[in-house]
Amino acid sequence: LARAAADIGTGSLDAFVPDVVHCHDWQAGLAPAYLRFAKGRAAASVTTIHNIAFQGRYDSTVFPELGLPAEAFTIDGVEYFGGVGYLKAGLQCADAITTVSPTYAGEIQAPEGGMGLDGLLRARQAVLSGIVNGIDTDVWNPATDTHLARTYSAQRLAGRAANKRQVENEFGLESCDGMIACVVSRLAWQKGMDLLGECIDPLVAAGGRLAVLGSGDAGIEAMLRAAAARHPGRVGIVTGYSEPLSHLLQGGADAIVIPSRFEPCGLTQFYGLRYGCVPIVARVGGLADTVIDANIAAVDAGVATGIQFLPVEAEALKGALIKALDFYADRPLWQRLQKNGMKADVSWTASAARYAELYRSIAPDN
Protein backbone atom coordinates (compact mmCIF):
# COMPACT_ATOMS: atom_id res chain seq x y z
CA LEU A 1 0.00 0.00 0.00
CA ALA A 2 2.66 2.51 1.02
CA ARG A 3 4.95 1.55 -1.86
CA ALA A 4 2.14 2.01 -4.39
CA ALA A 5 1.22 5.41 -2.95
CA ALA A 6 4.85 6.54 -3.10
CA ASP A 7 5.26 5.25 -6.67
CA ILE A 8 2.28 7.34 -7.72
CA GLY A 9 3.79 10.26 -5.82
CA THR A 10 7.00 9.96 -7.83
CA GLY A 11 5.25 9.96 -11.21
CA SER A 12 4.69 6.30 -12.08
CA LEU A 13 1.32 7.23 -13.62
CA ASP A 14 1.73 9.85 -16.33
CA ALA A 15 -1.97 10.64 -16.19
CA PHE A 16 -1.86 11.59 -12.52
CA VAL A 17 1.14 13.10 -10.77
CA PRO A 18 0.03 14.42 -7.39
CA ASP A 19 1.59 17.30 -5.51
CA VAL A 20 0.80 15.79 -2.10
CA VAL A 21 0.37 12.24 -0.79
CA HIS A 22 -1.77 12.17 2.36
CA CYS A 23 -1.12 9.12 4.55
CA HIS A 24 -3.23 7.92 7.46
CA ASP A 25 -1.97 6.00 10.48
CA TRP A 26 0.69 3.29 10.62
CA GLN A 27 -0.68 1.27 7.71
CA ALA A 28 0.46 4.01 5.30
CA GLY A 29 3.37 5.19 7.44
CA LEU A 30 6.13 4.00 5.12
CA ALA A 31 4.90 6.11 2.18
CA PRO A 32 6.61 9.32 3.41
CA ALA A 33 9.84 7.31 3.86
CA TYR A 34 9.68 5.97 0.31
CA LEU A 35 9.07 9.52 -0.94
CA ARG A 36 11.90 10.97 1.14
CA PHE A 37 14.45 8.44 -0.12
CA ALA A 38 13.21 8.45 -3.72
CA LYS A 39 15.37 9.56 -6.61
CA GLY A 40 14.19 12.62 -8.52
CA ARG A 41 10.99 14.60 -8.04
CA ALA A 42 8.65 13.40 -5.34
CA ALA A 43 5.36 14.66 -3.99
CA ALA A 44 5.20 16.22 -0.56
CA SER A 45 3.62 14.10 2.15
CA VAL A 46 1.27 14.48 5.11
CA THR A 47 0.90 11.92 7.89
CA THR A 48 -2.31 12.03 9.92
CA ILE A 49 -2.51 10.32 13.31
CA HIS A 50 -5.96 9.00 14.14
CA ASN A 51 -4.85 7.02 17.17
CA ILE A 52 -1.21 6.99 18.28
CA ALA A 53 -1.76 3.82 20.29
CA PHE A 54 -1.50 1.81 17.06
CA GLN A 55 2.04 2.16 15.70
CA GLY A 56 2.93 -0.76 13.45
CA ARG A 57 6.21 -1.92 15.04
CA TYR A 58 8.16 -4.80 13.47
CA ASP A 59 11.45 -6.60 13.95
CA SER A 60 14.46 -5.35 12.00
CA THR A 61 14.37 -8.50 9.86
CA VAL A 62 11.58 -6.95 7.76
CA PHE A 63 13.78 -4.06 6.62
CA PRO A 64 15.47 -5.86 3.69
CA GLU A 65 12.02 -6.66 2.29
CA LEU A 66 10.93 -3.01 2.18
CA GLY A 67 13.04 -1.88 -0.77
CA LEU A 68 14.44 1.12 1.06
CA PRO A 69 18.13 2.13 0.88
CA ALA A 70 20.39 1.18 3.79
CA GLU A 71 20.58 4.79 4.97
CA ALA A 72 16.86 4.67 5.74
CA PHE A 73 17.51 2.35 8.67
CA THR A 74 18.56 5.09 11.07
CA ILE A 75 16.93 7.10 13.81
CA ASP A 76 16.22 9.79 11.20
CA GLY A 77 14.44 7.24 9.03
CA VAL A 78 12.40 4.13 9.81
CA GLU A 79 14.47 2.66 12.67
CA TYR A 80 12.62 2.56 15.99
CA PHE A 81 14.16 0.95 19.08
CA GLY A 82 16.17 -1.44 16.92
CA GLY A 83 13.22 -2.44 14.74
CA VAL A 84 11.09 -0.79 12.06
CA GLY A 85 8.36 1.62 13.12
CA TYR A 86 5.80 2.29 10.42
CA LEU A 87 4.06 5.18 12.17
CA LYS A 88 7.39 6.48 13.43
CA ALA A 89 8.64 6.51 9.81
CA GLY A 90 5.64 8.54 8.73
CA LEU A 91 6.12 11.05 11.52
CA GLN A 92 9.86 11.34 10.89
CA CYS A 93 9.72 11.68 7.13
CA ALA A 94 6.49 13.55 6.35
CA ASP A 95 6.56 17.22 5.35
CA ALA A 96 3.58 17.87 7.63
CA ILE A 97 1.93 15.98 10.46
CA THR A 98 -1.69 16.38 11.44
CA THR A 99 -3.94 14.79 13.97
CA VAL A 100 -7.68 14.95 14.32
CA SER A 101 -8.07 17.67 16.94
CA PRO A 102 -5.96 20.53 18.33
CA THR A 103 -6.15 19.26 21.91
CA TYR A 104 -4.99 15.78 20.89
CA ALA A 105 -2.06 17.40 19.04
CA GLY A 106 -0.97 18.80 22.39
CA GLU A 107 -1.68 15.64 24.37
CA ILE A 108 0.51 13.43 22.17
CA GLN A 109 3.53 15.67 22.76
CA ALA A 110 3.46 14.69 26.44
CA PRO A 111 4.73 11.33 27.72
CA GLU A 112 1.28 10.39 29.03
CA GLY A 113 -0.29 10.71 25.60
CA GLY A 114 2.58 10.20 23.18
CA MET A 115 3.06 6.49 23.85
CA GLY A 116 6.78 6.61 23.15
CA LEU A 117 6.59 9.03 20.22
CA ASP A 118 6.19 12.23 22.22
CA GLY A 119 9.87 13.17 21.90
CA LEU A 120 9.77 12.91 18.12
CA LEU A 121 6.55 14.93 18.00
CA ARG A 122 8.01 17.65 20.22
CA ALA A 123 11.02 17.81 17.91
CA ARG A 124 8.68 18.21 14.92
CA GLN A 125 6.07 20.42 16.56
CA ALA A 126 6.65 23.14 13.95
CA VAL A 127 5.00 20.94 11.32
CA LEU A 128 2.36 19.38 13.63
CA SER A 129 -1.21 20.66 13.74
CA GLY A 130 -4.63 19.46 14.79
CA ILE A 131 -7.60 19.64 12.42
CA VAL A 132 -10.91 18.30 13.70
CA ASN A 133 -12.89 15.73 11.75
CA GLY A 134 -16.33 16.36 10.34
CA ILE A 135 -19.32 14.21 9.45
CA ASP A 136 -21.53 13.68 6.41
CA THR A 137 -24.40 16.00 7.23
CA ASP A 138 -26.57 14.48 4.51
CA VAL A 139 -26.34 10.97 5.97
CA TRP A 140 -26.67 12.35 9.51
CA ASN A 141 -29.65 14.66 9.17
CA PRO A 142 -32.59 14.31 11.58
CA ALA A 143 -34.87 16.07 9.12
CA THR A 144 -34.46 13.34 6.48
CA ASP A 145 -33.14 10.27 8.34
CA THR A 146 -35.07 7.16 7.25
CA HIS A 147 -33.82 5.19 10.28
CA LEU A 148 -35.92 7.34 12.60
CA ALA A 149 -39.49 6.66 13.64
CA ARG A 150 -40.12 10.35 12.98
CA THR A 151 -37.97 13.05 11.46
CA TYR A 152 -37.62 16.41 13.17
CA SER A 153 -35.60 19.62 13.29
CA ALA A 154 -34.47 22.16 15.85
CA GLN A 155 -37.73 23.99 15.20
CA ARG A 156 -39.78 20.79 15.65
CA LEU A 157 -38.11 19.02 18.58
CA ALA A 158 -41.41 17.45 19.62
CA GLY A 159 -40.85 14.93 16.84
CA ARG A 160 -38.14 13.32 18.95
CA ALA A 161 -40.82 11.84 21.26
CA ALA A 162 -41.75 9.12 18.76
CA ASN A 163 -38.09 8.15 18.46
CA LYS A 164 -37.80 7.98 22.24
CA ARG A 165 -40.72 5.54 22.39
CA GLN A 166 -39.00 3.43 19.73
CA VAL A 167 -35.73 3.43 21.72
CA GLU A 168 -37.69 2.18 24.72
CA ASN A 169 -39.14 -0.64 22.61
CA GLU A 170 -35.82 -1.67 21.08
CA PHE A 171 -33.95 -1.70 24.41
CA GLY A 172 -36.68 -3.02 26.66
CA LEU A 173 -36.99 0.17 28.69
CA GLU A 174 -40.12 1.15 30.55
CA SER A 175 -41.99 4.00 28.94
CA CYS A 176 -41.84 7.31 30.80
CA ASP A 177 -40.66 10.88 30.35
CA GLY A 178 -37.42 10.43 32.31
CA MET A 179 -34.03 10.99 30.72
CA ILE A 180 -32.49 8.26 28.58
CA ALA A 181 -28.70 8.35 28.35
CA CYS A 182 -27.24 6.25 25.55
CA VAL A 183 -23.89 4.78 24.56
CA VAL A 184 -22.80 3.88 21.02
CA SER A 185 -19.24 2.64 21.37
CA ARG A 186 -16.62 -0.03 21.42
CA LEU A 187 -16.84 -1.45 24.91
CA ALA A 188 -13.20 -0.91 25.78
CA TRP A 189 -10.92 0.54 28.46
CA GLN A 190 -9.92 3.43 26.18
CA LYS A 191 -13.60 4.39 25.87
CA GLY A 192 -14.02 4.49 29.65
CA MET A 193 -16.75 1.88 29.63
CA ASP A 194 -15.55 0.36 32.89
CA LEU A 195 -16.07 3.77 34.51
CA LEU A 196 -19.60 3.90 33.16
CA GLY A 197 -20.27 0.52 34.74
CA GLU A 198 -19.51 2.00 38.16
CA CYS A 199 -22.04 4.79 37.56
CA ILE A 200 -25.07 2.80 36.41
CA ASP A 201 -26.55 2.14 39.85
CA PRO A 202 -26.33 5.83 40.90
CA LEU A 203 -27.77 6.90 37.53
CA VAL A 204 -30.77 4.61 37.91
CA ALA A 205 -31.24 5.57 41.57
CA ALA A 206 -31.43 9.22 40.49
CA GLY A 207 -34.15 8.46 37.93
CA GLY A 208 -32.12 7.98 34.77
CA ARG A 209 -32.22 5.20 32.21
CA LEU A 210 -29.46 3.80 30.00
CA ALA A 211 -29.42 2.24 26.52
CA VAL A 212 -26.13 0.73 25.31
CA LEU A 213 -25.23 -0.33 21.77
CA GLY A 214 -21.76 -1.82 21.37
CA SER A 215 -19.41 -4.74 21.75
CA GLY A 216 -15.85 -5.36 22.82
CA ASP A 217 -14.22 -6.43 26.06
CA ALA A 218 -15.94 -9.54 27.41
CA GLY A 219 -15.66 -8.36 31.00
CA ILE A 220 -17.26 -5.01 30.22
CA GLU A 221 -20.04 -6.68 28.22
CA ALA A 222 -20.74 -8.97 31.18
CA MET A 223 -20.76 -6.02 33.58
CA LEU A 224 -23.31 -4.18 31.45
CA ARG A 225 -25.52 -7.25 31.04
CA ALA A 226 -25.45 -7.71 34.81
CA ALA A 227 -26.55 -4.09 35.24
CA ALA A 228 -29.42 -4.69 32.82
CA ALA A 229 -30.44 -7.74 34.85
CA ARG A 230 -30.35 -5.72 38.08
CA HIS A 231 -32.39 -2.91 36.57
CA PRO A 232 -34.97 -4.38 34.17
CA GLY A 233 -36.78 -1.67 32.29
CA ARG A 234 -34.15 0.89 33.29
CA VAL A 235 -31.02 -0.44 31.56
CA GLY A 236 -30.93 -2.12 28.16
CA ILE A 237 -28.01 -3.41 26.12
CA VAL A 238 -27.73 -4.57 22.51
CA THR A 239 -24.34 -6.13 21.78
CA GLY A 240 -22.86 -5.70 18.33
CA TYR A 241 -23.35 -2.79 15.98
CA SER A 242 -26.40 -1.69 14.03
CA GLU A 243 -26.38 1.39 11.81
CA PRO A 244 -30.16 1.86 12.07
CA LEU A 245 -30.06 1.56 15.87
CA SER A 246 -27.16 4.01 16.11
CA HIS A 247 -29.22 6.60 14.23
CA LEU A 248 -32.30 5.85 16.32
CA LEU A 249 -30.40 6.33 19.58
CA GLN A 250 -29.13 9.73 18.46
CA GLY A 251 -32.65 10.68 17.43
CA GLY A 252 -34.46 9.32 20.50
CA ALA A 253 -32.14 9.28 23.50
CA ASP A 254 -31.75 12.50 25.45
CA ALA A 255 -28.00 12.35 26.01
CA ILE A 256 -25.02 10.40 24.73
CA VAL A 257 -22.25 9.44 27.17
CA ILE A 258 -18.63 9.42 25.93
CA PRO A 259 -16.28 8.93 28.92
CA SER A 260 -13.12 8.18 26.91
CA ARG A 261 -9.77 8.13 28.68
CA PHE A 262 -8.29 9.49 25.45
CA GLU A 263 -10.12 10.41 22.26
CA PRO A 264 -8.22 11.78 19.27
CA CYS A 265 -11.41 13.26 17.87
CA GLY A 266 -14.50 11.04 18.07
CA LEU A 267 -17.55 11.17 15.85
CA THR A 268 -20.45 10.19 18.08
CA GLN A 269 -20.45 13.58 19.81
CA PHE A 270 -20.92 15.19 16.38
CA TYR A 271 -23.91 12.95 15.71
CA GLY A 272 -25.27 13.84 19.14
CA LEU A 273 -24.92 17.57 18.49
CA ARG A 274 -26.55 17.22 15.10
CA TYR A 275 -29.50 15.27 16.53
CA GLY A 276 -30.09 17.17 19.77
CA CYS A 277 -28.77 14.23 21.83
CA VAL A 278 -26.77 16.19 24.38
CA PRO A 279 -23.16 14.94 24.70
CA ILE A 280 -21.75 14.12 28.15
CA VAL A 281 -18.01 13.83 27.52
CA ALA A 282 -14.62 13.56 29.14
CA ARG A 283 -12.60 16.75 28.66
CA VAL A 284 -9.96 15.12 26.48
CA GLY A 285 -8.81 15.31 22.87
CA GLY A 286 -11.42 16.16 20.27
CA LEU A 287 -14.21 15.91 22.83
CA ALA A 288 -12.80 18.97 24.59
CA ASP A 289 -12.56 20.81 21.27
CA THR A 290 -16.06 20.12 19.95
CA VAL A 291 -18.43 20.23 22.95
CA ILE A 292 -18.98 23.51 24.84
CA ASP A 293 -19.34 22.70 28.52
CA ALA A 294 -22.49 23.91 30.25
CA ASN A 295 -20.67 25.82 32.96
CA ILE A 296 -22.32 28.91 34.41
CA ALA A 297 -20.64 31.32 32.00
CA ALA A 298 -21.49 29.27 28.91
CA VAL A 299 -25.09 28.75 30.02
CA ASP A 300 -25.52 32.46 30.77
CA ALA A 301 -23.98 33.34 27.39
CA GLY A 302 -26.32 30.91 25.64
CA VAL A 303 -23.57 28.91 23.93
CA ALA A 304 -23.37 25.64 25.92
CA THR A 305 -23.88 22.44 23.91
CA GLY A 306 -23.08 19.64 26.37
CA ILE A 307 -21.45 18.60 29.63
CA GLN A 308 -17.73 17.95 30.12
CA PHE A 309 -16.06 16.29 33.09
CA LEU A 310 -12.53 15.84 34.41
CA PRO A 311 -10.66 13.92 35.77
CA VAL A 312 -11.62 10.84 33.79
CA GLU A 313 -12.71 8.90 36.84
CA ALA A 314 -15.95 7.27 37.90
CA GLU A 315 -16.78 9.90 40.52
CA ALA A 316 -16.44 12.75 38.02
CA LEU A 317 -18.53 10.87 35.46
CA LYS A 318 -21.21 10.24 38.09
CA GLY A 319 -21.25 13.97 38.83
CA ALA A 320 -21.71 14.76 35.13
CA LEU A 321 -24.61 12.30 34.86
CA ILE A 322 -26.35 13.77 37.91
CA LYS A 323 -25.77 17.25 36.49
CA ALA A 324 -27.40 16.13 33.24
CA LEU A 325 -30.42 14.83 35.14
CA ASP A 326 -30.74 18.18 36.93
CA PHE A 327 -30.50 20.06 33.64
CA TYR A 328 -33.02 17.71 32.02
CA ALA A 329 -35.53 18.58 34.74
CA ASP A 330 -35.28 22.21 33.57
CA ARG A 331 -36.84 21.64 30.17
CA PRO A 332 -36.25 25.15 28.73
CA LEU A 333 -32.56 24.86 29.64
CA TRP A 334 -32.32 21.35 28.15
CA GLN A 335 -33.92 22.50 24.92
CA ARG A 336 -31.42 25.35 24.70
CA LEU A 337 -28.58 22.84 24.96
CA GLN A 338 -30.21 20.73 22.25
CA LYS A 339 -30.79 23.64 19.89
CA ASN A 340 -27.31 25.09 20.45
CA GLY A 341 -25.82 21.73 19.51
CA MET A 342 -28.01 21.40 16.44
CA LYS A 343 -26.75 24.81 15.22
CA ALA A 344 -23.10 23.77 15.50
CA ASP A 345 -21.18 23.30 12.26
CA VAL A 346 -20.15 19.64 12.36
CA SER A 347 -19.59 19.36 8.59
CA TRP A 348 -16.28 19.02 6.79
CA THR A 349 -16.48 22.54 5.32
CA ALA A 350 -14.10 24.38 7.66
CA SER A 351 -11.76 21.42 8.16
CA ALA A 352 -11.53 20.76 4.41
CA ALA A 353 -10.50 24.38 3.90
CA ARG A 354 -7.72 23.96 6.48
CA TYR A 355 -6.47 20.82 4.72
CA ALA A 356 -6.49 22.61 1.37
CA GLU A 357 -4.43 25.43 2.91
CA LEU A 358 -1.98 22.90 4.35
CA TYR A 359 -1.60 21.11 1.00
CA ARG A 360 -0.85 24.40 -0.76
CA SER A 361 1.79 25.29 1.83
CA ILE A 362 3.84 22.11 1.28
CA ALA A 363 3.23 21.35 -2.39
CA PRO A 364 6.41 21.34 -4.51
CA ASP A 365 7.22 24.64 -6.21
CA ASN A 366 4.74 26.42 -3.92
Strand % is 15-25%
Helix content: 40-55%
Largest sheet: 6 strands, parallel
Q: What is the CATH class of the largest domain?
A: Alpha Beta
Q: Could you say which structural class the secondary elements and strand pairing correspond to?
A: alpha/beta
Q: How far apart are the first and last residues' alpha carbons, in Å?
A: 27 Å
Strand order of the biggest β-sheet: 10-9-8-11-12-13
Kindly report the CATH topology of the largest domain: Rossmann fold
Commentary on this structure:
The protein is α/β, with parallel strands linked by helices. The protein has two domains: 2-133 and 350-362, 3-Layer(aba) Sandwich (Rossmann fold), CATH 3.40.50; 157-343, Glycogen Phosphorylase B (Rossmann fold, 3-Layer(aba) Sandwich), CATH 3.40.50. The chain is 41% helix and 16% strand. It has 16 helices and 13 strands. The chain has helices spanning 2-9, 30-36, 86-93, 102-107, 111-114, 118-123, 160-171, 193-205, 218-230, 243-252, 268-275, 285-290, 296-301, 314-329, 331-343, 349-362; strands at 20-24, 44-49, 57-58, 79-80, 83-85, 96-99, 128-130, 180-187, 209-216, 235-239, 255-258, 278-282, 307-309. β1, α2 (30-36) and β2 (44-49) form a beta-alpha-beta unit. The protein is elongated.
